[in-house]
Amino acid sequence: MKRDYYEVLEVDKGVGEADLKKAYRKMAMKFHPDKNPGDKVAEDKFKEAAEAYSILSDSQKRAQYDQFGHAATDGGAGGFGGGFGGFADFDLSDALRTFMEGFGSSSFDDFFGGGGGHRRRRGGDMKATLQLSLEEVAEGVTKTIKVKRMDGCDSCGGTGGESGAMPSRCTVCNGSGQVRQISRSLFGQFVNVGECSNCGGTGEVISKPCRKCAGDGRAKKTAEIKVKVPAGVAAGNYMTLRGEGNAGPRGTERGDLVVFFDEIEHKFFTRHGEDIITEVEISFSQAALGDKIEVPTLKGMVNLTIPPGIQSGQVLRMRSKGLGELRGGKRGDQLVKIQVSTPTKLNSSMKKLFEQLASVNGAKRKSTVRKVNF
Ligand SMILES: [Zn+2]
Ligand SMILES: [Zn+2]
Predict the structure, then answer these.
(1) Ligand 2 center to residue 167 CA distance, Å?
(2) Which residues pair with 241 in a beta bridge?
């Protein structure tokens, strides 16, 4: 004997659309098969609620049900059975479809954001910082970094079971790794999804845990990881090495290792994008006469020609002596700012020479006045 639809959903005959949906949601959540695996009574109640909702949420069907009761849906009695054909056999797939139409998902897990039904945990992500010299940034480099991370336990081979015992499905959460609790408050109904304490969220339990790792399947180890750094990276850039983070419990997926780059301050060079800048101090005579000097580059000492008559503050550009561009484009330059130093201490012979120079330039001291533009 079928129960009254209003009674099934515990609502009044005059219930509005919103309250009807709320009532159905409450019932569906309580009896959803994902939450009550293998429970036949719950499944029947889930189907019953879905059937009731599918009729009452449709204004035309609801009107007929209000007038004729179950006879309207049973197909046969009451004289208009043809109109409702199919509702007599409301099965689980119909019920799940109703649930999906009502709430956008047929799965309890999807609906509550719990992920897949057999969620397995994953190892944690890790962060590391890699210090790079400008020389390394210029060409790109492969470096090895040492990280302390969770790796598979040697004793049990990562299974977590003593002498290779395999884990079995957790009976508390039925392998999902999660437990849900529905709580009600003034603001409505809340579903709390928490990690199953029986299996620690893995969905599996081990009857005889490994003595070394206590069933976790992991141990902390130092690993050496090769990082291939492309040319042109800058401080703050990072690289994600998939699957190089911590191992997951009992052989589950590894987390990632995120490597952040940092630049070691250079003795001579300041970086400006792909260019590098340095300053060279030369003497009066070098500036006036010109010279060939040696300057450092990222690849060792190189000759630089100082043209005669260079002014203090002038910048010489050494093409392609900068950093490689990150996206493989052209190489930057090295900029050399010339600083002409004025001697602060003159011996008598130097003083004499400068005085001679001054007299050649003209007896009167010449100076040019200019407006300063900022
Ligand atoms: Zn172990
Ligand atoms: Zn569990």
Answers:
(1) 12
(2) 257
Is pLDDT at 91 greater than 80 in this prediction?
no
Q: State in Å: Cα 158 to ligand 1 middle.
A: 6
The long-range contacts involving 364-372, CB below 8 angstroms and separated by at least 24 positions, are none
Q: Is the pLDDT of residue 198 over 60?
A: yes
Residue 117 Cα to ligand 1 middle (Å): 26
pLDDT grade for 109, boundaries at 50, 70 and 90 = very low
Sorted by where each starts, the structural domains of the chain and their CATH numbers stand as: 5-111 (1.10.287.110), 126-263 (2.10.230.10), 270-361 (2.60.260.20)
**If you measure from the C-alpha of residue 270 to the centroid of ligand 1, how many angstroms do you get, rounded to a whole number?**
51
Distance 174 CA to ligand 2 centre (A): 6
Between 92-106, 141-155, 228-242, 267-281, the lowest mean confidence (pLDDT) is in 92-106
Distance 266 CA to ligand 2 centre (A): 55
Q: How far is the centre of ligand 1, averaged over its atoms, from the C-alpha of 164 (Å)?
A: 9
> Looking at the predicted structure, is the pLDDT value of residue 110 above 80?
no
218 CA to middle of ligand 1, Å? 6
Please name the amino acid found at residue 303: N
Report how far ligand 2's centroid is from the alpha carbon of 38 (Å): 16
Question: Cβ(324)–Cβ(264) under 8 Å?
Answer: no
pLDDT digit string, tens, across residues 19-62:
999 999 888 888 887 777 778 888 889 889 999 998 899 888 88
**pTM for the predicted model, two decimal places:** 0.56
From the CA of 251, the nearest ligand is 1
8 Å CB contact between 254 and 150: no
Residue 350 corresponds to which tokens in the numbers above? 């130097």
Do residues 222 and 146 lie in contact, with contact meaning Cβ atoms separated by under 8 Å?
Answer: yes
Q: SS3 of 216, please? A: coil
Residue 318 near residue 309 (C-beta atoms within 8 A) = no
Query: Ligand 1 centroid vs 202 CA: distance in angstroms?
Result: 15
Report pLDDT for 205. Answer: 84
Distance CA 280, CA 300 (A): 16
Residues with CB under 5 A from ligand 2 (ion): 170, 172-173, 196, 198-199
